[in-house]
Design brief:
Helix content is 69%, strand content 0%. It is globular, with a radius of gyration of 14 Å. The longest helix is centred in the C-terminal third of the chain and has 16 residues. The protein is mainly alpha-helical and 135 residues long.
Amino acid sequence: MATAEQTQALVQYTVGMFGIAPGGFESTLESIVDSGLTPAETMTLLGDNADLMDVVLGLGGDTTDGAFLTALLDNLLGASVSAETLTLATTVCQELLDAGVTRGQLMTVATDFIAATDPADAAFGQAQQQLENRI
């Protein structure tokens, strides 16, 4: 059975990646973790499923990196960062994708980054607080 820490990580990833709490599918995510994957590996698998991402992120069939990054960063950062910080985040994320990081990996790395950010950080602190409040 997934530990409380693993369940908390699954909730954090789901909120950060998709902008929603796992709700009714939390037990499904926990069963995947019970099979031996970490919460990050579980969410990476989901994030790498193009059809699922199209539906969950509301891409409307636009599977370009630009549409994906816009949806991801909107869920993760919202209006909590400046235009300059959003441009920086978009550039860094695009560079990671260009370097071979999968979309699922990027989603978990970006969520981990925001979750670990000091709330007093000028650039991403409000995003960290927003994520924490939504969990």
